[in-house]
Amino acid sequence: MPILKRTNSENIDFINLVQKLDKVLHEINGDEQAFFTQFNKIDMIKHVVIAYENNIPIGCGAIKEYSSDTMEVKRMFVDTKSQGKGTASQILKELELWTKELGYKKCILETGIKQTRAIALYKRNNFEIIENYGQYKHIKDSICFEKKLF
Predict the structure, then answer these.
(1) What is the rounded CA–CA span in Å between residue 107 and residue 104?
(2) Which helix (DSSP H) or strand (DSSP E) does residue 97 occupy?
(3) How far is CA 124 from CA 13, 31, 64, 110, 140, in A?
(4) Given 80, 91, 118, 130, which residue has the most CB atoms within 10 angstroms?
(5) What CATH number should be reported for the domain holding residue 139?
């Protein structure tokens, strides 16, 4: 079972994992990824979770404030070699816990319609599909989710 560490976007392991994530997303989305990249800057993210296995970073996720009662889940990634073991769900649950600890009432997120494993992850973790929000409102290749935290 991975060890989870709370940190921020200055963590070098997070930066390296995000670089791997960006490479995977570019492979999936091709040139269309450039549009999404503008919304995925990692500087100034205060709430990052990294999963470690044998002291090796294998996955990450982050939250950032979207509104006064909502955190947006960002930069979810688990290295290919470590997928299928529940690590992404562990990271997501830690992000939800942190969101509640900070006093927020819900999490929202966006993912691409081509990212079927991500969509399955969010559904499996009781996120519900919502109307696309913000910058994703009219993007046909985006799917948005929400989870109310009680």
Answers:
(1) 8
(2) helix 87-101
(3) 27, 30, 22, 16, 23
(4) 91
(5) 3.40.630.30
- pLDDT > 80? residue 50: yes
pTM, rounded to two decimals: 0.90
- Domain enclosing residue 103, as ranges: 3-148
CB 78, CB 92: distance < 8 Å: no
Whether the predicted pLDDT of 55 surpasses 90: yes
Give 122-142 pLDDT, tens digit per residue: 999 999 999 999 989 998 889
Distance CA 47, CA 57 (A): 16
**Cross-strand bridge partners of residue 70:** 67, 106
Distance CA 90, CA 59 (A): 10
Q: For the chain, what is the domain count?
A: 1
Q: Provide the total of helices (H) and of strands (E) in the chain, helices listed first.
A: 4, 7
